[in-house]
Amino acid sequence: MSLSDTDKWKKDFAELLTLPKLTTKNGLIIGLTYANADRVLHRNSYLGPSVIIYDTNGRQFLELYHTNGKLNRSTKEGPADVCYYDSGKLRYKQYWVNGKQHRPIEEGPAVIRYSEYGKLLANKEYWVNGEKITKK
Question: How confident is the model at residue 103, as a pLDDT?
């Protein structure tokens, strides 16, 4: 194992041990955030989201995936920005790669919205490398 492999292994292992910053309100946890040593939002997406926000009933409201401060998650893994209604049903999901809205067209839309009743809304958006694409 080379020195660079050892350094990478140590960095990845240290990230496993990183505890989130807790945000509380009236004694309840309303948010968890993970940051790197530079205090920038960051978490390996295989470990989970870098930001989790809960509503006042303790239900997950928002989850975000960041890499070194940029919204980022492999489109094969799933969306980098996911939001839920108070009912717990999915509100929207957005795909981001390296801080830009992005999802290959053949994989589907980069922004998908749902009604409060769980119905898929028609206003899907396609984005490639931060540019909105009009699908014909």
Answer: 97
Q: What would the mean pLDDT of 91-106 be, rounded to a whole number? A: 97
* Cβ neighbours of 44 (radius 10 Å): 15
Q: Amino acid identity of 116? A: E
Amino acid at 3: L
**The one-letter amino acid at 56:** T
Domains in the chain: boundaries: 3-133
pTM summary value? 0.88
| Residue that is written with structure tokens 């999901």 in the block | 93
What dihedral angle (degrees, nearest 10) is formed by the CA atoms of 86, 88, 92, 95? 130
The encoded tokens of residue 68 equal 């070194």
Q: Which two tokens stand for residue 114?
A: 């749902």
Residue type, 19: L
